[in-house]
TrEMBL record:
The keyword tRNA-binding does not apply. Keywords: Hydrolase, Metal-binding. InterPro entries: Ureohydrolase, Ureohydrolase_dom_sf, Ureohydrolase_Mn_BS. Pfam families: Arginase. The keyword Metal-binding applies. PROSITE patterns: ARGINASE_1, ARGINASE_2. Belongs to the arginase family. Signal peptide: none annotated. One of its GO terms (molecular function) is arginase activity. Coiled coil: none annotated. GO terms for cellular component: mitochondrion. It comes from Hypophthalmichthys nobilis. PANTHER family: ARGINASE, ARGINASE-2, MITOCHONDRIAL. This is Putative arginase 2C.
Length: 132
């Protein structure tokens, strides 16, 4: 799919069609090769082929979340991260941090805002007392 398709259909529909196609025949292991320059260069500037108008952070993470949700991810690589091409240390940090987020998401980490999402709110232990 192209960015035009993502703009037109939305990332959710693109992933539905993609996974329907991949999983239609058999539940086979998935090898995900994630090209970091699929992201907009404002997010991943330290890469060899930056192209304006790439994926947003949320779109890219949605892709890896959906791959994780299949339970079929067996191999993953993240390519085109090139710290030598970062114009500043901040550009390198932004790109490498984004790559870590992509990997963590593919392995099941979910985020909501600035905190890690839990399936349910942890309950306090009974022996815990509130002391003032």
């Amino acid at each position: 799919f192209s960015m035009r398709d993502i703009d037109r259909m939305g990332i959710q529909r693109v992933m539905e069609v993609t996974l329907d196609h991949l999983l239609a025949r058999k539940q086979r292991p998935i090898h995900l090769s994630f090209d970091i320059d699929a992201f907009d260069p404002s997010l991943a500037p330290a890469t060899g082929t930056p192209v304006n108008g790439g994926l947003t952070y949320r779109e890219g993470i949605y892709v890896t979340e959906e791959i994780h949700n299949t339970g079929l991810l067996s191999v993953m690589d993240v390519v085109e991260v090139n710290p030598t091409l970062g114009a500043t240390p901040e550009a390198v940090e932004a790109t490498t941090s984004l790559a870590v987020d992509v990997i963590a998401s593919a392995l099941g980490q979910t985020r909501e805002g600035a905190h890690v999402a839990f399936p349910k709110i942890p309950e306090p232990k009974e022996d815990t007392e509130l002391r003032l």
